[in-house]
Amino acid sequence: MTKAFTMSPSVVETGASTIVAQDIDLETFQHDTITYHANDNTYWFYEKSKESFPGQAFGLEVSKILYHTKSEFQDILIFESKTFGNVLILNGIIQCTEKDEFAYQELITHIPIMSHPNPKKVLVIGGGDCGVIRELVKHVGASSSSNGVVDDDDEENNTGAQEGIIDSITMVEIDDMVIKLLTQFLPQMAKYHNHPKVNLIIDDGFKFLRETTEKFDVIITDSSDPEGPAEEFFQTNYFKLLSNSLNHDGIVIMQSLENIWLELKYLKELIQKASKVFDNVKYCQCYMPSYTSGQLGLIVATNNKNVDLTQPLRTFDRHKESQLFKYYNQRVHSNSFVLPTWADDYLNGGNK
């Protein structure tokens, strides 16, 4: 069953209990990812993984612990950093930071939307930070704004300059605690979670796809890294469920791996799994300093062999691009699919 939820802008509600912002002393706070450095009296968050990126780590200096809890599904940590603003950590892995979240959110959203001729119905699996929802709302129908496309800089009417193309957005997120906390601690990302075009369902994404009879034009899988509740989102059966839930010419995009610098063999295997289900599969990458090695990979797939996923079907002029986006533009759309020679040879030129 799905769970409905309500919230206010200042507190987070879970059932009968109310959660307020925590006052946590860094000196007494204990977490596997937080390290104290006595030489300069600083506290640092470190993201490490012996499996995914052994021998290296990414660190951020911590100014303040904003919230820590363990939900039914995962460990959730939110802190204020010295240089990246507020940061969301799930199971020890950075999910988003105020400084650079827009890069990932824009690319994973606008690549499929701008590649589809008529994306009326969109499904988001995961995406509890609601950043993808924020980006999708930029393409809502004319009933939600004076001329269709939302401009993030207009807080009241959110009007843009292109005819609205999206009629409905369904988001299925397993952990409502993430959504509730993000509305409080990263509100710029989660501000459209209750938009009238958005149907928010608290449920398991895998289960939803197995049971739904709906078909979608675009499906965006905005899952966390492949462990814990997100692990099943990287298996062949999941790709089949995605394909079955797409309309003709539908497009799906999903996180694939941190980047080409890490576990390239695994990435190739993942692309091969997707290629067994979809007729047209491409890999693109996003540049983000808060992700390990500064990049994140995405797999884009469709059963339409004739569509060129690397080229947007709709474009904006430079002025409108600057109004709507911080990262995405038509040149970034195309160039995100361009790989360096060694990675292109390995992924597309046979075994090495």
UniProtKB/TrEMBL annotation:
Domain named PABS: residues: 42-303
- A GO term (biological process) for this protein? spermidine biosynthetic process
Task: Please give the residue ranges the record annotates as the region Disordered.
Answer: 143-162
One GO molecular function term of this record is:
spermidine synthase activity
**Any one GO CC term of the record:** cytosol
State the active site.
D222
InterPro entries named in the record = PABS (IPR030374), PABS_CS (IPR030373), SAM-dependent_MTases_sf (IPR029063), Spermi_synthase (IPR001045), Spermidine_synt_N (IPR035246), Spermidine_synt_N_sf (IPR037163)
UniProtKB keywords: Polyamine biosynthesis, Transferase
Family note: Belongs to the spermidine/spermine synthase family.
What is the name attached to this protein's record?
Spermine synthase
Taxonomically, what lineage is the organism?
A: Eukaryota, Fungi, Dikarya, Ascomycota, Saccharomycotina
